[in-house]
Amino acid sequence: MHVLGVLLPENQLVKHALTHFYGVGKTTALRLCARVQIHERCRVRNLNQSQVTALTAFLSSPANSPPVAPHALAAPNYIPPALGQPLPETEVPTPPDRLREIKIESDLRRQMRENIAHQRMIGSYVGRRHAMHLPVRGQNTQSNARTARKLNRVERYN
Amino acid sequence: MWPTAVVQGGRSAWKGPFFVAFPNLKHALENNIAIKTQARSCTILPNFIGLRFMVHNGKDYVPVTVTQDMVGHKLGEFAITRKRFTYKATKNK
């Protein structure tokens, strides 16, 4: 199944398949599942249409997704209202929603390129090392440093 | 995903950024005098913009002019400490 142009293998658990997105790891995948109410043991082929729609809607713009209503935790001395009575309205401060701040795929790549371009523009050591295709954080360069030679560019794509 | 961590650079929020209080900053800014310093780990604060620094790189002092975009970085990031390798042909052979 393709979601936003990324192939999610049918046979995998959703929490594992979601890590195929650039910028989604194990933890974020689990939180995404919880947000759009997909069971932890659900596989991609078992997703129904509404779940796929919800997932696509969330991932296409995490920042614009509807906020989650906060619920107060019950204290030990909590007495529930009588049956049939509505729950009392309580003021709950909205916790920061980190899942709405995630960036995936091209957004994340663009952010990374902008960060490198910023370092290069102000002429810092990090920017210079990127331009020289060398390791940035003080690693040895007498041998190895192959990953840096492959990846470190001013216009970096992966 | 953790914006505060990026801003603080792994430092506790209550401490704030590390910086060195340079004397007579205003005087240096008005007269365009370069401030000679060895404090490479001093964070560039917004009131440093436009100042000229001479930052020590271990051997001598490298001129650094602070611009708007450098705020939040360290002074030492702009004074490289390593010499580029250059091949020298041996004489007397």
Automatic annotation (TrEMBL), chain A:
<dbReference type="InterPro" id="IPR001892">
    <property type="entry name" value="Ribosomal_uS13"/>
</dbReference>
<keyword id="KW-0687">Ribonucleoprotein</keyword>
<dbReference type="GO" id="GO:0015935">
    <property type="term" value="C:small ribosomal subunit"/>
</dbReference>
<dbReference type="GO" id="GO:0003723">
    <property type="term" value="F:RNA binding"/>
</dbReference>
<protein>
    <submittedName>
        <fullName>Mitochondrial 30S ribosomal protein S13</fullName>
    </submittedName>
</protein>
<dbReference type="GO" id="GO:0005739">
    <property type="term" value="C:mitochondrion"/>
</dbReference>
<keyword id="KW-0689">Ribosomal protein</keyword>
<dbReference type="Pfam" id="PF00416">
    <property type="entry name" value="Ribosomal_S13"/>
</dbReference>
<dbReference type="GO" id="GO:0006412">
    <property type="term" value="P:translation"/>
</dbReference>
<comment type="similarity">
    <text>Belongs to the universal ribosomal protein uS13 family.</text>
</comment>
<dbReference type="GO" id="GO:0003735">
    <property type="term" value="F:structural constituent of ribosome"/>
</dbReference>
<dbReference type="InterPro" id="IPR027437">
    <property type="entry name" value="Rbsml_uS13_C"/>
</dbReference>
<dbReference type="InterPro" id="IPR010979">
    <property type="entry name" value="Ribosomal_uS13-like_H2TH"/>
</dbReference>
From TrEMBL, chain B:
<dbReference type="Pfam" id="PF00203">
    <property type="entry name" value="Ribosomal_S19"/>
</dbReference>
<dbReference type="GO" id="GO:0000028">
    <property type="term" value="P:ribosomal small subunit assembly"/>
</dbReference>
<protein>
    <recommendedName>
        <fullName>Small ribosomal subunit protein uS19m</fullName>
    </recommendedName>
</protein>
<dbReference type="GO" id="GO:0005763">
    <property type="term" value="C:mitochondrial small ribosomal subunit"/>
</dbReference>
<dbReference type="GO" id="GO:0003735">
    <property type="term" value="F:structural constituent of ribosome"/>
</dbReference>
<dbReference type="InterPro" id="IPR023575">
    <property type="entry name" value="Ribosomal_uS19_SF"/>
</dbReference>
<keyword id="KW-0687">Ribonucleoprotein</keyword>
<comment type="similarity">
    <text>Belongs to the universal ribosomal protein uS19 family.</text>
</comment>
<dbReference type="GO" id="GO:0003723">
    <property type="term" value="F:RNA binding"/>
</dbReference>
<keyword id="KW-0689">Ribosomal protein</keyword>
<dbReference type="InterPro" id="IPR020934">
    <property type="entry name" value="Ribosomal_uS19_CS"/>
</dbReference>
<dbReference type="GO" id="GO:0006412">
    <property type="term" value="P:translation"/>
</dbReference>
<dbReference type="InterPro" id="IPR002222">
    <property type="entry name" value="Ribosomal_uS19"/>
</dbReference>
